[in-house]
Amino acid sequence: MDRLIELLPQLWSATAETLLMVTLSLVFGGIAGLLVGLALYATRAGSLFPQRIAFTVLNVLVNTFRPIPFIILLAAVQPLARGLGIRGIGIEFGIFAISLASMFAIGRVVEQNLLTVRPGVIEAARAAGASRSRILFRLVPREALGPLILGYTFIVVALVDMTAMAGVVAAGGLGQFAIVNGFRQFNPAVTWAAVLVIVVIVQAVQFFGNSLARRVLRR
Questions:
Q1: Helices (H) and strands (E) in the chain, counts
Q2: Residue 171: enclosing H or E segment and its boundaries?
């Protein structure tokens, strides 16, 4: 316990690094994933812009990258990161890898939630003279906003998990803190302190996401 007290400044610093990685990965991966999801939804058969080839290519990409365990993806994308001028270790690489992984996961989540929009709503908008682009970028996301918020909440929780695994490539955060100061030093109190902070973060994110989605769904 004395060792844990000594490491408290590092614990708070690691918490800040985790929150930074989650935030930036959500921004980069969230925007890219939203575009991928919109493209999947729009190009599927019977949708607003049906394009079989484009849908097939996107679908294959998502199905290829999404199932890869993140710990393996970390090693697999190191050459790509170096080609873009990013070192294969450190917090920058962690953000890059997490953003890439989350992009495909978010793309699938967005597509599935957009598919919950009733066809009648789209038909009514088309009959009222709304363009297909307006329907795709404004009407459909608005109609699916509640499920989308829940979907993104699920992804944020997954991002916290990814930041912990990114500790193996010295990306900082609570994962590296637990590995270096807890596991390798045979100090379970330090490890469990990191676990407790992660649980608090996840609970806060889940509570906020559920509350926001509930407000939207009541409208």
A1: 12, 0
A2: none
